[in-house]
Amino acid sequence: MKNKKAEDERILSPVFFVMLVVIGIGIVSGYVIFYSDDVNVNSDEAEILSNRIIDSIVSNGYLNERVLDDSFDIFNEAKLNKALFHEEGYFYFEIVVLQEDNVLKNIFYGNEKLKLESQFQGKDFASGYYKEFFVIDKNNPEIVYKIKILTASKQIIE
Predict the structure, then answer these.
(1) What is the pTM of this model?
(2) Same domain (yes/no): 56, 8
(3) pLDDT per residue over 5-44, tens digit each?
(4) In whole angstroms, what is the distance from residue 79 CA to residue 97 CA?
(5) Domain range spanning residue 4?
(6) E strands along the chain, which residues?
(7) Could you report the per-residue pLDDT of 74-84, keeping only the tens digit for each?
(8) Is there a single domain that holds both residue 21 and residue 53?
(9) Are 30 and 108 within one domain?
(10) What angle is formed at CA 44 by the lines to CA 38 and CA 49, rounded to 5 degrees?
């Protein structure tokens, strides 16, 4: 009688190596596909920056009373690092507070080139986020303010 176990090993050995090759190709191709894709989070960064600014100037639909003061510090209120907002930096924001088309406050910091650049589409351009909304005065609900916020980000991830 022939050795049945030896015959089974000869058949399983090539199948085992084929399975290893298929699994290896799957792992390598998954790795290449995952890490070769460019990830651009600039639009998300611009939206997060806008939301942080909104949270610092608006509370429950009311305008933060300190916003209209000359001593108002947006970096302190929004807990932003002022060092990131320089003329050649990767971020920009602009806040305009209006009352009946009269500009009461205009705050802007950062790389102003990004403001223009954010109007274009593409991975080589900054991503922008624009939001416009109305809030009321806490002391006098008849006074309505229009708030315009533009944020832009061109953070380069390498």
Answers:
(1) 0.72
(2) no
(3) 555 556 667 778 888 999 999 999 998 888 776 777 888 8
(4) 20
(5) 1-37
(6) 58-59, 62-63, 91-99, 102-110, 127-136, 144-153
(7) 988 889 888 88
(8) no
(9) no
(10) 140
